[in-house]
Design a protein that fits this description.
alpha+beta; two-stranded antiparallel ribbon
Amino acid sequence: MALQYIGIDPDTGQGNCPTVWVDDKNDDLVLQGWLVDETTLAECLAIGDVPETEAVIRVPARMVPLIREACDVAERART
């Protein structure tokens, strides 16, 4: 797997921040985000279980342009 770096949260510097990549093997989006608080997790669990192999994360709204770009990259790779 090789990840194509798309971008990092523009408002948190360049350290350990929410980040977006695209996997060049299968065009999956790979997201790094903040762990959610107990209240948010409880709301998610009201819909269904979160398996041990998954996590609920929060990505700030200001990163929507980066996520759109990642979606565009993944979509172009599939055409």
